[in-house]
Amino acid sequence: MSQNYKETLNLPHTDFPMKAGLTNREPEMLAKWEASDLYGRIQAARSESELFVLHDGPPFANGDVHMGTALNKILKDLVVKSKTMAGFRAPFVPGWDCHGLPIEYKVVKESRDLSPLEVRERSAAFARKFIDIQREQFKRLGVFGDWDHPYLTMNPGYEAEILRAFAIFVEHGLVYKSLKPVFWSTGAQTALAEAEVEYQDRTDAAAWVKFPIVTGAFKDKASIVIWTTTPWTLPANLAIAVHPKELYVLQEFRHQGRSEMLVLADKLVASFCQASGFEPAGEPVESFPGVKLEGIGAQHPFLPRTAIVLTADFVTMDTGTGAVHIAPGHGEDDYSLGKTNSLPILSPVDDHGRYTAEVGLPELVGHYVFDANPEIVRLLRDRGMLVAEQPYQHSYPYCWRSKTPIIFRAVEQFFIRIDQLRQPALQAITEVNWIPAWGENRIAGTVEARPDWVISRQRSWGVPLPVFYSPNNEAILDPAVIRRLADLVAERGSNIWFELDDAALARALALPEGTRHRNDTIDVWIDSGVSHFAVCARHPALRDPADMYLEATDQHRGWFQSSLMTSVALHNRAPYKTCVTHGFVVDLDGKKISKSGTYSKPMDAGHFVNRHGADLVRLWVSSINYTDDVPFSEEMFTRLGDTYRRIRNTLRILLGNLCDVAFPEGSTSAPPSEFTIVDRWILERLQQVIDDCRAAYAAYEFHKVYQALNQFCAVDLSSLYIDITKDRLYCDAPDSPRRRGTQAAMSQIFEALCKLLAPILVFTAEEAWGHRAGNDRSVHLQLFPEPNESQRDPLAREMVDELLKLRAVIGQAIEKARQEKLIGNALEAAVVLECDERFVTSIPREELEEFFILSDLTLRAAAEARATITRTPNKKCARCWRHRPSVGAIAAHPDLCDRCAAVIEARA
RNA sequence: GGGCCUGUAGCUCAGCUGGUUAGAGCAUGCGCUUGAUAAGCGCAGGGUCAAAGGUUCAAAUCCUUUCAGGCCCA
Fold first, then answer.
1. Half-sphere exposure of residue A369, counting CA atoms within 13 Å on the CB side?
2. CB 3.0–4.6 Å: which of A348, A414, A530, A677 could bond A358 by disulfide?
3. Which of residues 232-251 of A have CB within 7 Å of strand B?
4. Residues with Cβ within 8 Å of residue A64, at least 6 apart in sequence
5. Domains of chain A
6. In the prediction, which pLDDT does A597 show?
């Protein structure tokens, strides 16, 4: 009777496992790649190809690789790998940014009282440790590159190039010296960075001080009243700032028989009266916007000097009088306002916070400024310039180390003149391809607005600022000397600057006796900002300008800009042709997580790599539109796991169905005559997918690759092509032409799929590829498939589109029949399909039955498509399970259909 | 506060220069299958396109404002 025919079928077979086991398999594959120098072999294979340089922006060498860093590096890798497979030679030389405050700060915090040299040695060790950690993490993500020879900004060779670039800046007259206020610790006699400042509550004298108007409107009729909590800065006052749009009043105030005609902001009259005891006498004489005060001169309260009234947007209406005392040497806003109005930078205070002779009041010279506060108040009162005084509690910056209150103090700094670079930089910006396009606006905005570049730092962990001082304390900026220093640094490292004393260094550089040097260093943004000069232009595999820089959107102001400025200074052009930016990683609710200290969920890339595998992390990167904020959540990883499994299973069933055919080198295929409509259609779809993916890779729109391949695997292949061709693959004779035709199509599809997936699923694509091609050939050495014009088949596409509409009609009818318990399996149905006549005539009924996966189809021409279901009277074939009229008609095989009977006969 | 940008189903994305009932995959629900089986197939539900105004014969698509979010400044 009914025998078991299972072993007579051509069932799929493959060793490619359904379960990925990525966390175990990936490290094995990495080891194999490393042992066979896959990166080197790829480069060698492309040695004659057109060059494409993606220049790596160096991450800072501290901390673990978190999802934001992983996103960046994987995006770069997607570019490099897709360019490689598009036929380019795309080397990747990774780099690290090593110098800078965050490392120095950590080192200094761990152990105090280190010499600069000790700080530098420990900082270098710290950087090396994290370079090694990050390098392993990047490699683990499947990122290919020259990991054994990265560029480090602390390598002596790199440091020397920084100095050589600096020499050119000096030659071009871009570097100048000027005073600029910085956070200054009077206790430690050193400049501080913002991170080194801690805030404490403290009570100071708040003083309302009048500045009698001596020129312009209201001359000799009134005084402008300012409010300050740092009376000690008054000797450095040079101006008064008012808000241009806010309303100010001229009004008489009275208190204890005293009368004052004052100008102050309308909104702050009430708080002024409350704090000072003064009361308004009648209505304001006049009220006007602050801009009307611009240019007025006001007498300094105790020095023979006039303060000019300026307008500034930073003036607020929440405290004070709306008239802000400006001392350009003692405040950030004060400084920039003074700078734009060409005021001098006055800062009559020494390293210990004591007044210098410049203060203009002999009795105060040598006094510590915080002790001087009451003295200044007394002076104001004596001169009748004090309108009111009140103790004021506020949060004030303190030095984290010496615990002394911090002052803003102007010290000598070096600058790069941006005005000289601004126009050429803006021009260079227009010549760059910005992705997304709005990046151009953004960087142009920052370039237009940025002030001169402060390039000196009073820090130890950096490249020494190559400035020398003559015996009479004049700064020496000499390109030739800087180049000699660069040679010395290239040979012996930049520690030489800190190891040698003045005399030894002067001797080494052939400088006159008595020449001294200081311990200032160069801003680290110069370090990374000259990488095009130090790396791209020097590295034998690279080129300057690079084809692409790719970083997060904060780098419009950071590395993109610093690199642009230095490149314009050196070559008068941008260092990149294309600039790609990506957003930041944000949580499901759109909140940032990369940098938040309060975020408690794991953000280390390692966490997800160990849990899901690097290919899943890469699939995540490929799935999102990186030009926006990048969403990230556990749920997304669950979904991605489903997508991954779908892709993997598709590869697996293709492999299984190809188990009895050889891998065709160069993908030949059976002649079109062997193809049925569905074969022709899937090959047409494949050409489209190849087109779409190639275009999406070329435009760096990786999420479109993801969508296209996902759709292709899930819909076109899994639920259509593979499902439809199952019958012929399993039940036909192994070498039946239509079976072989389908295998030829599947082989081509498999090959193309592996290649198109390879940049994203680096491990899985390689694993699948190895099951077909043999393990000695890497998919990463292949080129992307080219669309095969001979397989374009718009007609097949059109036909199948129509057939799919009919399929939906049938599907709905069958679903209904199922619910009515008329049938279970769709193969039990007898379907009468009414449809357009051309389907009745142009495609064989058998082929339509196969396409719709039915046993029993009757076609009738009709205007509107309609399907009617009954239970088929045909018996079920014991082998192929279809209910066919021929079952029972063949004497030798009463339980088989004609097709299956013929196959069995042929086997015997 | 300023500059640049974003906001379409539970999730990720389409939707070109405004033009038929806003699409896809995944997820969800209900079935089928047990010869891709810790798989596969079918059907179904789900969106006032952040909100409010405006331009237009017509807006997710253009303009304004608001709200929410991001980066960079202040």
1. 30
2. A348
3. none
4. A133, A134, A137, A604, A605, A606
5. 10-18+590-755 (1.10.730.10), 202-393 (3.90.740.10)
6. 42
* Amino acid (1-letter code) at residue A479: P
Residue A339: CB less than 7 A from any atom in strand B: no
Lowest mean pLDDT across A126-140, A168-182, A709-723: A168-182
The ipTM, to two decimals, is: 0.96
Closest residue (CA to C1') to nucleotide B10 in the complex: A635
Cβ burial, residue A776 (10 Å; 0-12/13-18/19+): exposed
Angle value at C-alpha A427, between A422 and A430, nearest 5 degrees: 130
pLDDT of A189 over the 90 cut: no
Q: A883: which strand partners? A: A876
Give chain A residues 13-42 with Cβ within 7 A of strand B: 18
Closest CA to A683 of A806, A758, A795, A803: A795
* pLDDT for A454: 87
C1' of B57 to CA of A704 (Å): 36
pLDDT grade for A776, boundaries at 50, 70 and 90:
low
**Predicted confidence (pLDDT) per residue in A295-309, tens digit:** 888 888 888 888 888
Chain B nucleotides near the protein (CB, 7 A): 1, 3-6, 10-14, 24-27, 31-44, 68-74
**What is the percent of chain A where pLDDT is above 70?**
96
Using the predicted structure, report yes or no on whether residue A908 has a pLDDT greater than 80: no
- Give the least confident one: A79-83, A413-417, A774-778: A774-778
Phi, psi of A506 (to 5 degrees): -60, -40
**Which one, of A760, A765, A767, lies nearest residue A621 by Cα?**
A760
Residue A710 contacts strand B, CB under 7 A: yes
Backbone angles phi, psi at A900, to 5 degrees: -70, -40
Torsion of Cα atoms, A137 then A139 then A142 then A143, to 10°: 110
C1'-nearest nucleotide to the CA of A12 = B36
Percent of chain A with pLDDT over 90: 61
Q: Is A380 left (phi over 0), alpha (psi -120 to 50) or beta?
A: alpha
User: Do the Cβ atoms of A448 and A181 come closer than 8 Å?
Assistant: no
pLDDT digits 0-9 by tens, A263-299: 888 878 888 888 888 888 778 878 887 778 888 888 8
Helix H or strand E encompassing A145: none
Closest CA to A204 of A401, A406, A389: A389
Burial class (CB in 10 A: 0-12, 13-18, 19+), A133: middle
Window A643-662, strand B contacts by Cβ < 7 Å: 643, 645-646, 649-650, 652-653, 656
Strand B within 7 A of A722 CB: yes
**pLDDT at residue A885 greater than cutoff 80:** yes
CA separation for the pair A759, A776 (Å, rounded): 19
Total residue length of chain A: 908
Q: Which residue has the higher pLDDT, A671 or A391?
A: A391
The answer to whether the C-beta of A815 is closer than 7 A to strand B is yes
Q: How many other CB atoms are found less than 10 A from the CB of residue A118?
A: 15
Say which residue the tokens 């058998």 belong to: A846
Q: Which residues from the 621-640 window of protein chain A have CB within 7 angstroms of nucleic acid chain B? A: 623-625, 628-631, 633, 635-636, 639
> Which tokens in the block code for residue A446?
């920052």
Distance CA A713, CA A646 (A): 7
